[in-house]
Amino acid sequence: MDQRVLNKLVESVSNTVKSFKKCEIECLIRLFQNLVKTDGRIDKTGIDRNTFQEILHNIFGMTDDMLMNRVFCAFDKDNDNHINVKEWVKGLSVFLRGTFEEKLKFCFEVYYLNGDGYISQEEIFNMLKNSLYQQSSEEESDEAIQELVDLTLKKMDYDNDGKISFADFEKAVKEERLLLEVFGQCLPEAKKCLDFEVLAFRHIPISRF
């Protein structure tokens, strides 16, 4: 990529992403370019769903297909089924260096599966069923999961409307931080983040940090 074009792109991205230095943004853009395998205009291409899920699995250690798909949707802000370079850097800023509030919003966005802004009983049931290893019969398992759904709503549904709003989720998680990923992993572990940063930023001279 032409250095002038790269510099312009770095400047544009840095206006909206404050958690990375410009040299780090440049590294993430170069990594994006390698992932999409193009020497041309990277602002005209993106990472597809399958490639992104491979990244989540191989680099960040995620294993839940349903939630990896939802993480893709959370990154893909314009809903075009590709993660463009700005979405890539912005999403990684939350993954790697997001504030508690940013991660709170991100997890909630991952968990409301149908995009209506609420986590419904059906969505809670499906996420819990998807994340729990079942050893008993399906009928017994469904009954046990429904009990978990009822317990979850009792703990998190503060306005008793049968679903979890962002206000409900925020209040519950602020009272008990372990509830942040209550329905399954949608953020990488700290060590995976550190390993990724070491890999992504390895060519930056120490003096630039």
From TrEMBL:
Provide this UniProt record's keywords sorted from A to Z: Calcium, Metal-binding, Repeat
Q: Would the keyword Repeat turn up in this protein's UniProt record? A: yes
**Name of this protein:** Calaxin-like isoform X2
Which residues belong to any copy of the EF-hand domain? 63-98, 99-134, 144-179
Task: Identify the InterPro entries for this entry.
Answer: EF-hand-dom_pair (IPR011992), EF_Hand_1_Ca_BS (IPR018247), EF_hand_dom (IPR002048), Recoverin (IPR028846)
Q: Which top-level group of life is the source organism from? A: Eukaryota
